[in-house]
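Private note to self, pasted from the team thread so I don't lose it. Backbone tokens:
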């Protein structure tokens, strides 16, 4: 048994750690040669116990180092919960609480999870071949753009929302769908006095608003490189609003576009947006989802995990949790095969069925995202009804 993990994001690294912990041979590759410049933080709640199962004890116990604020206790974070405000008044509309929450800076987390894992970088998967009549370790080959390849028993495509492994499995059916909204995700620093004020006033985990102008905005802490120098603290903004015939994507400067939409927002958020440095870079972005379609796993030789298996919007904070759930299910299945308790085809079929069931969250998260842009009906949002609990019983 040799597993080829394609993609060293949250899902791929969680799988690699789990395989290593269970002494299952693997190789993990990623197309990147340097970390992507996009960064954000994720809220891990219900998947934390699964993460603990997958990671070596020391890595799990030092996860707080990946938090935007390393001193924030997971139980306190759970009590503070996910705060949704009325964007006009700043008053609380909803708080989703969980017994324990960890906010994790995604770049720091990927670095942390790579500890002791030999990720082969600079290997973009371009093709897969199924090998006939080979022994267990030679059943499938992954080919990379640098001309090299890896051969093993099974490929797990953990290569994100625009997965190439998914494209190999499903062709045009693998295409993502763009949601009809504008989207911004950018990070910035603030003058020290405003950074301190924001840090004091904002909910320490998630602090977002839904505005009567049918707009979503959230302001979050990303990092505190120097705890004593508030001018170094890094925050980020996520903002979405609906695009329709009357409301096209503007062609001007992105920060000006955002500022022009802040009329009527409550003071804290308005002040922050006013004080974002004028030269901040806001790259073009798009919310995309993929509603999972069943795939043929070629007799247990190719499967998918994480965003590759179900890519969703972030408004209910489920993508990362589900990536870890996939990793745990995948590692448990392969471990059972290695122990001789399961046949590999039955194990991977059962895993695939589970991933397909979990993908119900793609539509729930889409509804949550669009509900933020429909203020009148916002109280019907899945965020009100389900908070950040998983959509299904596990
Ligand atoms: C703004 C934002 C906020 C979010 N908030 C939350 C939250 O609060 N809670 C939550 O649970 N989730 C959240 N998520 C979702 C979460 O971040 C993702 O679901 C999770 O990171 C997906 O991990 P992944 O490993 O599946 O994919 P990725 O992290 O995208 O990793 C895929 C990896 O595959 C590599 N790759 C791609 N193509 C190839 C190829 N052809 N060959 C080799 N390598 C390749 C990429 O370089 C990348 O390293 C949020 C997402 C965003 C964008």
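Design output:
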């Amino acid at each position: 048994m040799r597993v080829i993990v394609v993609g060293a994001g949250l899902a791929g690294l969680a799988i690699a750690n789990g395989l290593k912990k269970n002494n299952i041979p693997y190789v993990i590759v990623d197309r990147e040669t340097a970390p992507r410049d996009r960064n954000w933080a994720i809220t891990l709640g219900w998947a934390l116990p699964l993460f603990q199962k997958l990671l070596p004890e020391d890595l799990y116990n030092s996860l707080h180092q990946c938090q935007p604020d390393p001193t924030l206790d997971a139980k306190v974070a759970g009590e503070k919960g996910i705060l949704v405000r009325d964007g006009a008044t700043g008053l609380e509309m909803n708080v989703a609480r969980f017994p324990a929450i960890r906010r994790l800076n995604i770049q720091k987390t990927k670095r942390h999870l790579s500890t002791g894992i030999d990720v082969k970088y600079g290997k973009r998967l371009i093709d897969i071949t199924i090998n006939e009549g080979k022994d267990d370790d030679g059943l499938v080959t992954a080919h990379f753009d640098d001309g090299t390849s890896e051969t093993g028993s099974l490929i797990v495509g953990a290569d994100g929302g625009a997965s190439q492994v998914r494209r190999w499995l499903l062709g045009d059916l693998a295409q993502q769908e763009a949601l009809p909204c504008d989207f911004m995700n950018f990070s910035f620093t603030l003058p020290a006095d405003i950074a301190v004020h924001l840090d004091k006033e904002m909910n320490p985990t998630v602090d977002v608003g839904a505005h009567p102008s049918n707009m979503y905005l959230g302001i979050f802490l990303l990092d505190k490189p120097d705890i004593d120098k508030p001018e170094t603290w890094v925050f980020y903004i996520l903002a979405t609003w609906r695009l329709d015939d009357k409301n096209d994507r503007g062609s001007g400067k992105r920060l000006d576009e955002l500022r022009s939409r802040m009329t009527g927002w409550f003071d804290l958020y308005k002040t922050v947006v006013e004080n974002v440095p004028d030269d901040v870079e806001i790259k073009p972005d798009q919310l995309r989802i993929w509603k999972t379609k069943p795939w043929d796993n070629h007799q247990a030789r190719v499967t998918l995990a994480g965003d590759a298996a179900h890519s969703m919007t972030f408004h209910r904070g489920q993508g990362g949790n589900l990536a870890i759930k996939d990793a745990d299910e995948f590692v448990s299945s392969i471990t059972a095969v290695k122990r001789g308790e399961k046949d590999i085809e039955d194990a991977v079929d059962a895993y695939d069925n589970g991933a397909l069931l979990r993908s119900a969250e793609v539509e729930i998260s889409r509804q949550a995202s669009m509900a933020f842009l429909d203020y009148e009906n916002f109280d019907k949002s899945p965020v009100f009804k389900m908070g950040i609990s998983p959509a299904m019983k596990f």
